[in-house]
Amino acid sequence: MHIPLTSMEQLLPFPTAEELIAKKRDAVVSLTRGHIMSVPPQATVLAALRCMAENHIGFLPVIENGALVGVLSERDCARRVLLGKLPAESTAVREIMTTRIYSVPPQAKLPECVILMHEKEIRHLPVTRGDEIIGVLSVHEVMGALIDRYERVQRRLFEERLTLLYPDPTSY
Length: 172
Prior knowledge:
single chain; alpha+beta; CBS-domain; two-stranded antiparallel sheet; 4 strands; elongated
């Protein structure tokens, strides 16, 4: 029995933030904790920048006593340290980190992530379970997931069209 499709979500469900994190290629290594790339608030901006440069990333969660207390981006460093003429080798991350943190739970669907990132004009989105950060999604990863889903929906719609036009499987 063929069940009619009534929504795009029914055709191909959106992935969750947790599923997107699970697909990430790179194993993340921490500056301090050993599993998620992060930095403590007392670290210097220079140490954080070195960590970002060595790992080819532009964003670090700031973790203190196991809790997410802020975030640090290359943009924060450029605007607050370089333009503010602060010494990177002696300025603590705590002094320049962003403390207004937007995050999503692991079960958040892709559209929710995209909307939040767009509305808040952020490029990185921490995924948290309670106080614990389980990963970070970048705008690059979110856009890649949208493109992947779009291509899969197109293929699926083409298959559905074939089924409607040629209901007898032996005809194709």
